[in-house]
Write a structure and sequence with these properties.
The structure is a homotetramer. With about 350 residues, the first copy, chain A, is of the alpha+beta class. Chain A contains 7 helices and 18 strands. In chain A, strands 1-2-3-7-4 form a 5-stranded antiparallel β-sheet. Chains A, B, C, D: Keywords: Amino-acid biosynthesis, Aromatic amino acid biosynthesis, FAD, Flavoprotein, FMN, Lyase, NADP.
């Protein structure tokens, strides 16, 4: 029941603060004999890395991962895999005022009351910097489920949604927004530039699809895939909503319109729809797993907002430092990692209980 | 890592199938010295009980709970509390065809492939009947957090949403829909009657508010309140979406509009808004916790839908038996129970780690 | 982290007090498709059942187990298996004084201070009666490891040890002591009769051997088989010592005398000794697993001993009621059950992580 | 259910191999506000450090610990504490033959079959080097239980036991054996020198006493202090036996002789004996906790022993490299650390459930 661990048979624990010397993850339960080196992890970290466009924080972190254990001669050994990423570009002085007043939308006040004492530099433990550890752990998880392809993209930013008919998987990596449509990406660029210049920020919706998941993963009743995915996504910084398949939209359908009808197929059943997003009773159905999550706009903004100091005095705060104008953008690789971890864990649990 | 357990310091495990002799829960970790008898649990079960109106299944289950352990002379002893509810009104013959063909939207196919063998009667383990155990366990959880008030209501049914300005807490218990507005309830009645007569079903959105939660509950990073609540709600039958506070709506706000500004108050800080739904960084802020969940329409409908048999042959299926035309209605007491369990667990964990 | 659960992928939770209406266990994670009915469990319970000879408590409990869930048409379904045993022959009046003064060697005082409130009748939750639940759960565990044979016997009682050369497996079930030597059993009978008549009690050492365990079960470093076995045995009532293989005796050997040398064998390696008791680095080696545990003499005796009342007054106590003069005797079936649970769990975990 | 984690509310996870770049531990759940710096940890590591006398391995490791997270301005923050110790003096060439043949008494064979692939250098993950991580984590645990004093010493080495009447706590730190009697230490020196020169090794028994533990820690039934202590100790390299209080000796006492009688005392009850080793029903009684563990002789010896190669061929093996002639010596600080971790965890759990 570690507060900072996630997963069961495949389980990772993260540690580290935004402005400490390093951050890292320990991945436990990885099967032995899988090829793993830093080069299997680095590309995923690079996708999430800050400072790559003007739409992300200008903090320059190389995010170079080191594998400290669990791998011998290029293969995993079944023992814990320790991953470490050094923090390089901390500028703690930017945060000198953060310790004095509570930033609305941030965890400052709650941490202060809960713990009495916290590391305020860069948000400390609550910083999104920690998600680099998740991405590194997720890269390991991908090795456990080689037949599964996991892809996240933004489907809405600042209230501007993509048109489903224009969805182009190939486009996702061609723009700084993980947007599956070039035209929408262009609109987002304008909107995000404007918000940034106005000292404001925007929210986003990220969608992740996992294909190649066989029938039978997920363990009812309290380890349903839906529950695990919801827990995984809702734990990502700034996420306030999660839905599987049609999600909230399903609440507006009639029973017969929401049915994922089946027909005999060439190899196994063929589904005529995927309203359920690839799960039934919390177990994968063999259809693509589809999850969406909503991220609030970045709380760190240059627009002054009303707040109080640690001493309870009224004040206004402007959050300087270097921040993403839309945290949703870099959340896409994080979401992929968390979905990979949930699925890899579910695969191992399924194998453990049923032998398949 | 029990598949059928939930929680950490306060933890419950459920067992039982829809048409087995009984269902039940074992609640572990309950603090000693709390007054507990069947009469503390029964009223909550009665709220969820089937057969109370024409808008719920006509299965007649008294849902009488028995406490088999963990209580002595009316007080909890700190040992496991075993709760049992006998199944009385099973009509397994209604389900004779269920074992032969897969009902779309149900877990039939996924369970069959996962386990190879299942109890198909009434959905077996995947039946919403199991949620009675959660409600019973939730009644125990409420004792652990005496200052917290937890209230769920439907805010949308069949696509018809309540008007926020008409929200009346007192109305919730006066109609069979847990609807906080009499006028909307009347509309829902018409819509649900129509759906029922058409052999169809409707979805719903349920909202739960917990007031009286102090600052500091919830354990970052992987036991954030948000994560635990999302996991708890997404594990309820038919739920496909969860949001905290403004949820998906927050993704459309600008940073300054989403800020929960603070001002000095008479006792502690005063918040000027609650977009975050009572959490920051996964920790409670002292504001009301607000969670919403979306339920798909009941999959068991009398409208024929296309499917396949266990042998892979094409067929059509009509799900007879006794079913709720909208599973969202009876999900409200279940949601309350799950929220109570999450909060009680978070309280004990907070006390364990910090002594407060 | 349930206090009342044991195991990981195969996990059981027990509930119930000595003088409550019933006791029981919920077994979670059992693989599907295994043949299971009450008749697979009852014989193991009968072995542990009280009242079968004058060397065990005279409480008459039929210990009839009921399966309430998780089995359909004679096969496990992969869902939780709920097992219940009703308490029939409680005589709570025998214990009217137990609530007033603390019995030395019993948990009375510690429970009272820890919980403030407890069920004192028959020891409540701390009664060895709870071990019936473990035996029932253990019967399920045996189904998970069909090739493994688990056998416990007493190797010492009241300081009288068996001679190893006279060890006869077939004798174990022919005497009321699970003694592998008829001659020693006769000596124990005399010693135990004398102790019983003197209002005293005796301790014992129980040894359990599991054959047929393949190489590779057990998960280093903190789920070593040794650790899991030690935890399982040390949790049995009255157990104060556990050893694997040569145990404490190994501390007196020289390195070369303690080496389990290997030689090529017809199918796999042949070991020339088994000092290690079937584990190396916490992992099974393919040799028999050998565990021993020491039980203190029954604390409930008719000889008066000095103690204090709940109010802190000096007093003497004589523990009436019906008690085993040597709790070690009936601990043998319990030890078997716990070893079965550890091994079944280890097997599923091994399969989950490595696929074998 | 991490294989490489230990504890519940206070939980640590270790990682690292003997000849990898570093080893480490992540301690999760530590209460906030405790003063912690490297200087609080280093003295405990120094006690366990190799190369300090001719009775331990000559590998020269400074064992300098670094705190990478969880501490800000000298105080713990309630977030995970990452501890890292770099490996400095690996000589992997010494182990070039280890990968080819299985060393009796080592985990080589079991790891190989379990995982198919392992890091054989210095024993890899199964090396006692990993216990440095436990000692570092244990130093953090001590801060959580400030009133508790934990002290381990050797009470037997190579079959030579101390005389209880000569036990002198102050002597423990004055000899290289953690021996509480100078005279016995002198005998051990002779015995161990002889064994070392003969290319052999000796076993030992280590005893740990924790004073200052209040009544009420430990959670029945499956988190009994006894179980947790047994699991913690049996997981230490080379340990094959554990006992609490009189342990195996209790099996030879009569009920009245084993009773820990009570009498009214000046502040709370006074116990007249401590046969139980400070626990009753798995809960602390307020008396000193007394645990003993038996370690087999070091398996790495220069005396040739019969074994097989990875290819199944017969061979003899002599284990070169640098080894402790008695692993029991350096196990004393490790045992202290594990006992500290169990007690700190039990304290937080007790506080969580009961508020005290």
């Amino acid at each position: 029941m570690s507060h900072n661990s996630f997963g069961h048979l495949l389980r990772f624990t993260t540690w580290g603060e935004s402005h400490g010397p390093a951050i890292g993850a320990v991945v436990d339960g990885c099967p032995p004999g899988l090829g793993l080196s830093e080069t299997d992890i680095q590309p995923w970290l690079d996708k999430r890395r800050p400072g790559t466009s003007r739409f992300t924080t200008q903090r320059q972190e190389p995010d170079q991962v080191r594998i400290l254990s669990g791998v011998h001669e290029g293969l995993t050994t079944g023992t814990p895999i320790s991953l470490m990423i050094e923090n390089v570009d901390q500028r703690s002085k930017d945060y000198s005022e953060v310790g004095k007043a509570y930033r609305p939308g941030h965890a400052d006040y709650a941490y202060d009351v809960k713990y009495g004492h916290r590391d305020p530099r860069g948000g400390g433990r609550s910083s999104a910097r920690e998600t680099a550890s998740r991405v590194a752990a997720g890269a390991v998880a991908r090795l456990v489920i080689p037949g599964v392809r996991i892809r996240a993209c933004l489907v809405e930013l600042g209230g501007i949604a993509i048109e489903r008919s224009r969805f182009d998987d190939a486009e996702i990596d061609r723009n700084p927004f993980f947007c599956p449509d070039a035209e929408t990406a262009a609109q987002w660029e304008i909107a995000l530039d404007a918000a940034r210049k106005a000292g404001s920020s925007l929210g986003a919706i990220v969608e992740c699809t996992a294909t190649g998941v066989p029938v039978g993963w997920g363990a009812p009743l309290y380890m349903k895939l839906d529950s695990q995915l919801a827990s995984a996504c809702m734990g990502i910084n700034a996420v306030k909503g999660v839905e599987i398949g049609d999600g909230f939209g399903a609440a507006r359908l009639r029973g017969e319109d929401n049915a994922d009808c089946m027909r005999p197929g060439t190899d196994g059943p063929q589904f005529l729809a995927n309203h359920s997003g690839g799960t039934a009773g919390g177990i994968s159905t063999g259809q693509p797993i589809v999850v969406r999550m909503a991220l609030k706009p970045t709380s760190s903004i240059l627009t002054p907002v009303e707040t109080i100091t640690r001493d309870g005095e009224a004040t206004e705060i402007v959050t300087k430092g270097r921040h993403d104008p839309c945290v949703g953008v870099r959340a896409a690789p994080v979401m992929e990692a968390m979905v990979a971890l949930v699925l890899a864990d579910a695969r191992l649990m399924q194998r453990g209980q049923t032998g398949r």
